[in-house]
Design goal:
Blueprint lengths: L2 E5 L3 H13 L3 E5 L2 H10 L4 E4 L8 H11 L4 E6 L4 H10 L3 E4 L6 H12 L4 H16 L1
Parallel strand pairs: 1-2, 1-3, 3-4, 4-5
Helix pairs in contact: 2-3
């Protein structure tokens, strides 16, 4: 089961995302600010971090920089209302694996699908095809 850390100061949003993830077979934990998120990240293994940018105490960008020091290979998806292209480009240079807008037009299922694509890059059918192809080549 995939384990997701949600670093989000808006608890209504965080709880809705957590519930949607759990309904889709994933385990999720919430940290309501960056400091708590980093503390959880240091003591636990997560497959993916869902990170808001605008939070009190520690910005999402600062949290991202620390995440990359603590867990350089964990997937990080930015989930925020903030969408200045230059800022997103700067975050990409630090190391994000995706961006989903949580604004008024946000689609929770889009977020779930982006997370699933990161955590399960191959469908069961894709894996069978890859194994079948490998067996064919091995037998040649």
């Amino acid at each position: 089961m995939s384990k997701i850390l949600i670093i989000e100061d808006e608890l209504l949003t965080a709880n809705a995302v957590k519930e949607a993830l759990e309904l889709n077979g994933m385990e999720a934990e919430i940290a309501e600010n960056g400091m708590k998120g980093l503390g959880l990240l240091k003591g636990n293994d997560y497959d993916l971090v869902l990170l808001d940018l605008k939070m009190p105490k520690l910005s999402g960008e600062d949290v991202l920089r620390e995440i990359r020091k603590i867990r350089p290979y964990v997937f990080v998806i930015i989930y925020t209302n903030f969408s200045e292209f230059a800022d997103i480009k700067a975050l990409a240079n630090i190391g994000i694996d995706g961006y989903v807008n949580k604004g008024a037009d946000a689609d929770l299922m889009e977020l779930i699908n982006v997370i699933k694509e990161k955590l399960e890059p191959f469908s069961l059918e894709d894996m069978h095809d890859i194994l079948r192809e490998a067996n064919i080549r091995e037998g040649e």
